From TrEMBL:
<dbReference type="InterPro" id="IPR036761">
    <property type="entry name" value="TTHA0802/YceI-like_sf"/>
</dbReference>
<dbReference type="Pfam" id="PF04264">
    <property type="entry name" value="YceI"/>
</dbReference>
<protein>
    <recommendedName>
        <fullName>Lipid/polyisoprenoid-binding YceI-like domain-containing protein</fullName>
    </recommendedName>
</protein>
<feature type="domain" description="Lipid/polyisoprenoid-binding YceI-like">
    <location>
        <begin position="1"/>
        <end position="144"/>
    </location>
</feature>
<dbReference type="InterPro" id="IPR007372">
    <property type="entry name" value="Lipid/polyisoprenoid-bd_YceI"/>
</dbReference>
Amino acid sequence: MIKGTFNKVDGTINYDENKPQNTTVRFTVYTDSVDTDLKPRDYFIRRKELLNTKQYPTIKFTSSGAKLKNPREGHVTGKFNALGQSKPMTVKVTLTDVYTQSKTEPSALKFKATALVNRHDFGVTAFPGIFGTTIPIVITGELMPAK
């Protein structure tokens, strides 16, 4: 399995500790920032038959709902927009840690979010022997209170 990251991402998470179901998430990933630690492979992935970064410079996720399964796990539903198409997506979110930086700073939450994307759903069928059909998405991050 080839692993990579996107080095340029913008987004906001509005998390209400008292009403987690009101959580909203919005992310934009800049496709030309793909990084697999091998530049020739990155250029290959950016090509028209795959990410098509020239025509579609961003991938977006916008939430429409959130539901807690327990105090440390939940699901965020929304729309995943890639390659000019919009599809529903459910993202599993797990709280992995809560920590305090200092006595004067509020607590921060570390999380892991996972989802699966079928690349054929977005018209990406090229190179079946190189890339799998189902692409896992894994996002790790920290929620810091707004100042």
